[in-house]
Give the backbone structure.
Amino acid sequence: MPDQLASPPTAARAAAPRASAPAIPRWKRRGVRDRIARATLLLPAAAVLVPLLAIIVVQGAILVTHGENLSRPGSEKRFLGWGNFVRAFADPTLLGSIRVTVIYVIVGVGIEMLIGVGIALLLNGRVPGKGVIRALVLIPMVLTPVVAGLMWRLLLDPTSGFINYLLGVLGLGNEHAFLSSTMTALPTVIMVEIWQNTPFVIIIVLAGLESLDQSPLEAAQIDGASRWQTLRHVTLPMLSPVITVVLLLRIIDAVKTFALINTMTQGGPGTSTLAISSYVYRTGFQTFDIGYSTTLGLIVSVAMVILLFPTAGRLMGLGGRKAAS
Amino acid sequence: MRQSKLRSVVSAGIVYLFVVWCIAPLVWLVSTSLKSDVDAFSATPVWIFVPHFENYVSAWVDGGMGRAMLISAAVGTISSVLGIVAGFPLAYLTTQVWPTESRASGRLTLGILLLTITPPVLSLTPFYRTFFTIGLTGTPVGLTIVHTFYATLLAVLIFRSFLVSFPREIREAAMIDGLGEWRTLTMTVLPNVWGAMFATFVLALIQSWNEFLYALILTNGDSSTVPVTISGFLSFFGTNWARLTAAGVIGVLPIVVFAILVRDHMARGLSFGGVK
């Protein structure tokens, strides 16, 4: 069709002599090229995600059905079928590590939310030096968790730690081994989790507060509502979408916790701080039982996705009625 | 009037106390890094001391922090940039080409969300096993690939949260003018979402720099990243806390300074559009 090059619409009309609707052929002609162009938009992401997903699925399927142990050559050929799952469902350590993780997430994230929302509300008022405060408060959140864990280990050291010195000065005894007692290890690790991640809540809730529509607040003030009433009946309800998102993001992140625990206690003493990630790591890379380790990872991930995915999808305005924004 | 004054003093006081709680441990970290090893491990705190900068030299040279910083910077930068390159077109496709409400867009985004929620322990052993077989463990390459995976997920969600409210008419006009999808993407949409791109870069870089679980199994010795190198300073035979804390300060300094400089870009990216 060299003679029609100059004018594509004519070409379309020539192909369909009853040119009552030239828009349809044009749309169709563009269709194939468009579809190819659209498909290329997927390519970069697919190039990153698909090979790795294939590894997870294929290699994962092999690992969970075999009793591979990295320290025993030949063990990768030992087919177990459901054996790893049977073992997991009778494994008291798995149950214990789920318990540790649930306590860690509920207590840790719960307190982070309370303190975080509280401080954000106070910071939203008149506090001198707000700019500097916002910059300083950010630091724990971006601090490398390994460094945060080691720093707290130093501070909590029974012989030379500053916390014990402080408690000694206050007359509360100066030889507390917080991280090596099964009673105090988990609460101590949770305290460090709260130290590190409360700023995340503050920063997002504060940004949410600052973007709130001011008119309902002013209306409440004019109507003579007290500060507490305004907070309870106007501010917090308006803020609730932001609070829900922060809560969800903190839960998703806290369930994955590894670096803090691994640098402070390695899951110990015993299994008192052995959260799920630490247990999977310990099984796979310290006892080298990687077939079983993969099975543990799979069970935990499935549970996690079932628990959180529906809420997460709804909050992102997906897979349900779209949230008005 | 007096009551409201009292109230603001009290609330400022609580905020300052919280700031002290956040910062005091860091002050202790920095001061320990400047002490001699004996003072660093003293039972009663040593308040006045001559700064020992040789801890820093020792951490940087003998401790391998210099090399670790280089590796972390390379892994972080490469994976963040690749994540943006991979994630941005997908976010464009699911918000501008397809309407956000469309089924295809919803499904793709749910898939990305699903991968974000899935704990990394699921892929830990499959990645290790595969990368070990093809010789990518003990090098920064395997880790960069894994970090690119997570950077891509982050990029899709952040770009998407910015592009959801971006008018689709702009793309349609560009398409009528004969720009293809890729030129529309780079020439008309991208210039409007530099903020999203910057936020993605910052968060992906911090995420990669701080990541420990994959780094621990995929890198070792000369390929160790910053967190792996620092955790290696712990020793059963008496840890040198002065040198360890010096390494810690070196390792977190770039990321902390960077985060403070770009903090305004972070809040919106952090919440995936939860805060407008």
About this structure: Chain B has a mean pLDDT of 89. Chain B touches chain A through 99 residues (CB under 8 Å). Residues 2-55 of chain B form one domain. Chain B has two domains: 2-55, 57-270.
